[in-house]
Amino acid sequence: MRFLLYMLSLTLVWGCSTKEKTSQVAVTDQNQTKADTTATQPANTTHTAVNKPDSRVGTSTWQYSKRVDNEGRTVYKASITSPRLLEFDFPYTGGSVATLTIRKRDTDTHVYIQVSKGQFNRSFQEGKARVRFDGSAPVTYTFSAAENGSANVIFFDAEKVLIKRLKTARIMLVDVDFAGQGTRQIEFRTAGLKWLP
Description:
The protein is built from two helices and nine strands, in the order H-E-E-E-E-E-E-E-H-E-E. The chain has helices at 2-51, 159-168, and strands spanning 63-68, 74-81, 98-105, 108-115, 127-133, 139-145, 153-156, 171-178, 182-189.
């Protein structure tokens, strides 16, 4: 009799614990299903966001390089890209990256802006751009065309003045005309420049 009661109590205990485990597994499976469904939804949202054009580019950090060119001259460069793409109409659609560069080769130092798409609007050798550092009033600077005729690069004529300002400024705003596209403002976050050469 005792043996039967003992077996009956074991069966009840074992049966209850099995039911608990089964229900826990069922709850876990439901949670996993919910988690899987939730995981799928953001993936679709992210995919959609990737397809939308993003106007932000660049790291806003100066990049430095030093190399020897084909003529044996040491070339120093400090470059920074604009944090925003320039948006142009056809045939330059899709966003254009603007890069500001300081370059020293022998005794020649240049400050120039280059765009990945588009052409600066300039006369044969002299164009003008309005430049503003931080909250100061805009100043007009002249620039020259590239010697090789590339229309996507302009070289500022007052490089020493610009470099001095770049060393202390946080933001440089450049208003400049582009051929067939009108005036665009290019922003460079210039804080932290270390230019020694």
